[in-house]
Each structure stands twice: as structure tokens, then as C-alpha cells.
Amino acid sequence: MVTGIVQEFQFGMNWSEYSRYVGSVFGAPLAIEGLLAFFLESTFLGIWIFGKDRVSARIHVASIWMVSIGTMLSAVFILAANAWMHHPVGYRVVNNRTVMTDFWAVMTNSTLIGSFLHVLSAAMLAAAMLILGVSAWHMLRDGRRSNPRLATPLTLSVADGPDATDGPAVGPGSTVDVAPVVDPVFATSGP
Q1: What global pTM score does this model have?
Q2: Same domain, yes or no, for 132 and 92?
Q3: Do 159 and 101 fall into the same domain?
Q4: CB 72 within 8 A of CB 127
Q5: Residue 3: per-residue pLDDT
Q6: For residue 15, is it within any domain?
């Protein structure tokens, strides 16, 4: 959530000419991310943090699931903007500025799907490793606690299961998707 604030300043201050040129296309997924995903995340994170003793246990658990869904939606919209930079689709140039002609072409960009799967599997793997490390620390400190013993098999199944194999399988695949559309960039950039 915090990186979005820095990102907006970078677009305005560091890349202002770029933002003027592609803002109507590039800005749409980022605006939707800010209006939909960020508010979803921040609202339910507030409920999760400050509502522990004020809401029922079901609502408390549901709120952190909504934060997770909001985070994944946020990743989709940010990666849609990123995918558009790699493979611009659904636009035309009018008066030396880009104009979006097809929102769904931007949101279903061929490079978006591979990069989203790669980012999602990497995030799940990183989260599993963090939980596994905290669980191991708790078990070393006090072996009688039941919560770390319950969390360890679950995180090991995530860390050693599909996410561990999906990342290496999906990552190179997203590079294969991106390489043909940015090949001129690779060809001109020397060692």
C-alpha cells in the first residue's frame, strides 16, 4: 500500500513528460487501482487492525481475506499498467498523445497474464517463508505452543508445493511472452 504513494510522486515529478504522453492510457489502470483496490485494502485493514475486539470473529477473519483480495486486485491493475509499457495495445496517438481505444485490450494484455501468475506465486512463496520462519522461531523459543505447530505443515505445503514450482515455471514463460514485443530494446542495449 505504501509504494503507491511513492509511485504517484514518481510519475508526477520524475516522469512528467511520460505521464503527459501516455497518461490517458497508463493512468486508467492506476486510477482504478487507487479507487478500487487501495480503498478495499485500506478499509478492511482498518477493520482488521482496529476491530479485533469490536467485530465478531467471522468479520475479523473476513476482513483480512478482503485485504488479500484487494492486494491481488491491486497487483492486477498495477501489472496491467506495467504490461502496457512492455506491450502497448488498445490505443492510438492523437495530437502527439496516446488515447485509449480499448480498455479490455489493456486489461487482457498477453504480457499481463504471465506476469500476474509469476508475481502471485512469488508473493505466496515469500509469505509462506515468512510464516515458516516466524513459526520456527516460536517453536525454538517455546516448543509447547500449538499455533506454530499448526502453521508449519500448512506453510511447508505452500512453500514446497505448487508455488515453489510455479514461480520458476511461470517466470521464464513471462519473459518469452515479453521478449518478442520488446526485442528491439534488447537488440539496442549492449553489454
Answers
A1: 0.77
A2: no
A3: no
A4: no
A5: 61
A6: yes
